[in-house]
Amino acid sequence: MENNRVTTTVGSSSVLTCSLKSNITMVTWKINPKVGGSCTLGYRADQNKTDRTNCSDSINWKFRPDRDPTLEIRQVEIAHEGDYTCEVVATEGNFHKTHHLTVLAPPRLTLYCDGHGVPVCEAVAGKPPAQISWVLESTSTPKEEAHDNGTVTVLSKFTAHSTNRTNTTCIVSHPAGNQSKSIACRPSGKLPSVRSAFKIPVSLVCTLLFLPGMKIYKAIGTFNEVLYRQENHPQLPLPRSITSLFVF
């Protein structure tokens, strides 16, 4: 008896060969998935007849079974994972060949900033579970969530302590293929950059435009403080460093 291990991915086609012999009398494919009921495909030469029991339309002969009893699975799904055994009866004798089919599900990579400005990377619905790493070293411990269909979602938060706001890159490693994606998050609780100055009320911006002499430079230097108070403590009055600028 011959054994063979085959690995394929969800959505692809898989071709499983059988012992090719001359003067075939009968061929039977016995399919035992890991989940769900078994099914069979059969061919009898004396009746020139094929039959099938409980097999979906996606599982069928690739060619005419009297010439080549190869099996083809179209649009592979996780449910197709299991053992596929071909039994051939020919004038030369009886032959058995079993394929142990493993189905991989590539995860979907998502990368976003959470409410605290922390990069979060998810490898959604992968089989087997994906491995997540970051270009900059992180102490994050990935969390896994198993799904009923055998896939697993892995989540990792970037926890390195750094004030660097350059892009953070998440790398997802998986037998079905590796992926990466980058994102730039702004940590919450820190002073916004001057690039966010458009958030200042129009009246304040207009006033700043008419500041004399060196006061305009002092105003620019205190933009961050204004923005921080607007976003985090809007009920507080402007600091003296700001209001003093408007005394001509």
From TrEMBL:
Residues 1-102, 109-184 form the Ig-like domain. Gene3D superfamilies: Immunoglobulins. PROSITE patterns: IG_LIKE. Keywords: Disulfide bond, Glycoprotein, Membrane, Receptor, Transmembrane, Transmembrane helix. The keyword Protein transport does not apply. It is found in: Membrane. It is a single-pass membrane protein. It comes from the Eukaryota. The keyword Transmembrane applies. InterPro entries: CD200R, CD80_C2-set, Ig-like_dom, Ig-like_dom_sf, Ig-like_fold, Ig_sub, Ig_V-set. GO terms for cellular component: external side of plasma membrane. GO terms for biological process: regulation of neuroinflammatory response. Belongs to the CD200R family. This is Ig-like domain-containing protein. It comes from Bubo bubo (Eurasian eagle-owl).
